[in-house]
TrEMBL record:
<dbReference type="Pfam" id="PF01105">
    <property type="entry name" value="EMP24_GP25L"/>
</dbReference>
<keyword id="KW-0217">Developmental protein</keyword>
<dbReference type="InterPro" id="IPR036598">
    <property type="entry name" value="GOLD_dom_sf"/>
</dbReference>
<keyword id="KW-1133">Transmembrane helix</keyword>
<comment type="similarity">
    <text>Belongs to the EMP24/GP25L family.</text>
</comment>
<feature type="transmembrane region" description="Helical">
    <location>
        <begin position="210"/>
        <end position="231"/>
    </location>
</feature>
<keyword id="KW-0732">Signal</keyword>
<dbReference type="InterPro" id="IPR015720">
    <property type="entry name" value="Emp24-like"/>
</dbReference>
<feature type="domain" description="GOLD">
    <location>
        <begin position="52"/>
        <end position="136"/>
    </location>
</feature>
<protein>
    <recommendedName>
        <fullName>GOLD domain-containing protein</fullName>
    </recommendedName>
</protein>
<keyword id="KW-0812">Transmembrane</keyword>
<keyword id="KW-0472">Membrane</keyword>
<dbReference type="InterPro" id="IPR009038">
    <property type="entry name" value="GOLD_dom"/>
</dbReference>
Amino acid sequence: MNQSNDLNRKTIEKMFQIICYIWLLVLLKDLDFSSAEPHNKQLTIFVEAGRQECFYQPIASSENIKIDYQVIHGGLGEIHINFNFMDPSRHLLINEIKEEKGKHILVANETGSHKICFDNTISSFNQKIVSFTLEVTAADREEQELRNLRREMLTDYQFDVAYTGIDNYMGKIQVNLMRSRQTQDFIRALEARDRNVAESTYAMVNNWSWAQFLSMIFVGLLQVLMVRSIFHTNGTFYKFWKCF
């Protein structure tokens, strides 16, 4: 009976130690590993006709770069733009001409300020609205060092495996939430483009209707004047028609 009680007590103590380890690692993750989160930047910009807009982003060597962009409004159906991406030495890494959208994934070969440019010099009158996302994630080498640090802090191999599974699952949830937010932002951008197209179409139809209405009034008045001049024999228009 005493042996059974001792076994139950040891089991409870082991479970308590495991729970304490879990809380400790969660606190360590919040304090030390927040720098491993990816850097994301999303902007919607206006590029005037005949000009280009450039942005600079410091990126370390061997970091992963992902760029997504899309022209959501161009005016008169011109939804394309030139896109350039340059390294700190200003070597051209990406050069696209008259593209509506693009998606690129590459690895930085040099540490420094990278240059992103949207060139609208191809248009003389049309302003462009561009939505783009820049995502910079840590290099594989840094991730490997982070995993080694975690492994050194753990003393129980089984607990290490359990923590790694939980950490990977949390990382997948974070990535999926980030992708969902980017998808929602692109949907809002498309809705803004459709709204701009609808408003411009409405304005064009409205102006054309006014022009037709004024033309009808002018033609009606001209016809009345011509008919009256036929029967008014003393008028100037009647003498004019008599010449023919």
